[in-house]
Design goal:
The protein is about 45% helix and about 25% strand. It is of the alpha+beta class.
């Protein structure tokens, strides 16, 4: 089995933080030499980062985790029994059970449980929110800023753009937000980030916008963008 075949299904577990230290270190060593897995991690990272902020954080019902783990373990035991019965009917039960068990990576069950638990907690939060029309959209950043990222939180007609790990600009330049309305790029607020690279920008009237974008402009702002967007949020 190649390294890529072994690790390609672990991207979700890595982004969810469901690996122990040794598994995470092994996966990161694999990432250093596998461009396909690196691309998949970057493709899924915005969605994984947006999950915690996509709904109000509410405590799940008591006993949810215990019931989920019991279901996972029960399904695993049932699957093992079915596989063992099928092997016995072929007359080579012992050999086939050994072959089947040797292919199982036991931590994967924990990954499945973690993903299911996360989905259930988020679903529970959405159900409790009822008629709330807010949503969170992950941003796309330029390749020149591999560590940057963030979300656009939309609530009704207003929104808040939250960015992290943005490069600090020179004193003569600022970041500027643009709101796309049809073919027009309407200038919005300018903002700066400090040494921590974080920037929060409140934006009014985005309910009929087709996108929110960020460029680097001279201090004081501009009337038209001077470069292609370095942060994009198509809506």
């Amino acid at each position: 089995m190649s390294d890529h075949t072994r690790y390609r299904d672990d991207v979700g577990a890595y982004l969810l933080g469901a690996m122990n230290d040794l598994e995470r270190q092994a996966f990161e060593r694999h990432l250093n030499g596998c461009s396909e897995c690196r691309d998949e991690v970057e493709r899924l990272r915005p969605a994984a980062e947006a999950l915690p902020g996509s709904v109000e954080q509410l405590a799940p019902p008591p006993g949810l985790k215990a019931r989920l783990m019991a279901e996972v373990e029960g399904d695993g035991a049932a699957a093992a029994e079915r596989t063992g019965a099928a092997a016995e009917r072929t007359g080579a039960a012992a050999d086939r059970r050994r072959g089947w068990l040797s292919g199982i990576r036991l931590p994967r069950m924990a990954y499945v449980a973690a993903a299911l638990l996360l989905g259930l907690v988020i679903g529970f939060g959405v159900a409790q929110l009822g008629g709330d029309d807010s949503r969170t959209v992950p941003v796309t950043v330029a390749k020149a800023m591999p560590d940057a990222g963030g979300t656009l939180r939309i609530s009704g007609s207003d929104a808040t753009l939250r960015l992290h790990d943005m490069p600090e600009l020179s004193a003569s330049r600022v970041y500027q937000v643009w709101i796309q309305h049809g073919d027009r790029m309407v200038p919005a607020r300018t903002f700066e980030v400090g040494s921590n690279g974080r920037g929060d920008v409140d934006l009014p009237s985005v309910d009929d916008a087709q996108g929110v974008y960020v460029t680097r402009e001279p201090r004081g702002g501009a009337q038209v963008p001077s470069e292609n967007p370095i942060v994009s949020v198509p809506l």
